[in-house]
Amino acid sequence: MGSNDKIKAVGVNIQEKANLIWNVANSLFGAYKPHEYGLVILPMAVIKRFHDCLLPTHDKVLETHEKIKHLAVKEGFLRAAAGGYRFYNTSPFTFERLRTDPENIKANFEAFINGFSDNVIDILANMGFFNQIDRMNDAGVLYQVISDFCAENADMSPDKISAVDMGYVFEELVRKFSESYDEEAGTHFTSRDIIYLMCDMLTMEADFSDPESPAKTVYDMTMGTSQMLTCMEERIKALDAEAEIICYGQEINPFTFGIAKADMLIRGGDPENMQFGNTLNDDKFTGYTFDYCISNPPFGIDWKREAADVEKEHKKGDAGRFGVGLPTKSDGQMLFMLNGIAKLKDTGRMAIIQNGSSLFTGDAGSGQSEIRRYIIENDWLDAIVQLPNDSFYNTGISTYVWIITKDKPVSHREHVLLIDASGCYEQRRKPIGNKRVDITEACRNLIIQAYGDYDSKTYEKKIGDGKTIVVKSKRMESIALGYNKITVESPVLGDDGEPVLKKGKPTADTSKRDTETVPLDEDMDDYFEREVLPYRPGAWIDKSKTKVGYEIPFTKTFYEYLEMESADEIAKRIKAHEHSLMEKLHALFGGEQNE
What we know:
595 residues; alpha/beta; ten-stranded mixed β-sheet
């Protein structure tokens, strides 16, 4: 299946499968409130996915278990019998067999659950599922829920639905669950088209063919259900089928964490690489570094609950992740950026999504500006891509992919490439939430071309239905993103109009204190003499107050001035409009008089 087909599949068969599973809610009606449906549906979908993966080897696992039940160490034998999966189930029950005995449904279902290997039971415990078994049984809906998951079109075996697509089914279920809570639905959900773009930008110069090179490591600090990691692995395998990828991730939501760990188990990875906890104040990967980091952290979310721990780590300076500066407590997205940078190898690369505030909010010397300064002055900021609006399920605002590279190519050094891809999309036939557009393969290739050229250009390509997609890029010197914020003082004047001196120096009139922003690549004294002194005689720069700031003027860089219509043309247009209006009025009232 091509990448475009996979992108479209998110809105077609995946959504249909998710809707089918979510329809189990009909059996929960009355016993559960709508916002509680996900407490049952999400873990039951995970259980059914495990069950359907294991079903072909079920008899062999039972046979093996009978033979080795006297042994102290059984794991290896049972995993082998389960077809190499890192999980298994030694219970004699299947969903079909459970359905044949409604009288003993609770005891049999509990026996079925307890037959799973410990790693599966841990996932279900994290999701709080064991309490739901009692609740469903007491409400008389347990048998019906299990029967619903026996439907033929609820088959979740790997030959019916791939690991990546199953991940998107889980994502869609999470989206629905979030909506039922009236939460922001896309908190966990980054669509495949955006992830493919991020993956391709991260790996476009990579070489996975060296048999001597170790496996590449990929980390997502806010992994949701781990689809970024899954897609990254998928894209790298497409480049080199022999490439070895090891995925790591951390997630704070117990449901999405459970799904991510289940997905890792099914795909044959190490489930211990999936960690539960808050990345900002409970980092599970202290001391780790990775080849790649790919992430879509929450933006516009405050970090007040993590503040004590984050501020404590900030005081450690270079020994911690946040020593360089702290953003305002109302938005913690730049803390995740700092975490990602701390987790990169010296040759590592990161693609991270941010909203517009990370580009410019915060004055010189503020936490946000200091974070930008840290990234740019270390020459780690390689490129920023503005995505089309309406690319995400939960927001239509402008969003940006930052590409951070610890070891820039020589041709990129001391420069940053800004890419405006806001006009590079194809309209979706059917929106999903706020997502109305896709970055299709043609769009992605145009953006990748701009990134590869690393120059100031405009790219256009005609696609279907006469639409032209457009990408604009601007190569900028890194120093051009910085500025000195200077403080201009004016003297207090005496009655004679002369400056009042104190210890031989003019006294500053604080009521006339002002600031000026001077580009870093311009001498501040030359600027002052040219732009300030002619209008403020006797003024001076208090250089003890000078602060360095950085901002990324994305909108200004790509702004195109549209020449205004001349006054004569406007007057002609108004006159013609008035004439037309008078004729209509005359016809209207004239017609009435003639009747």
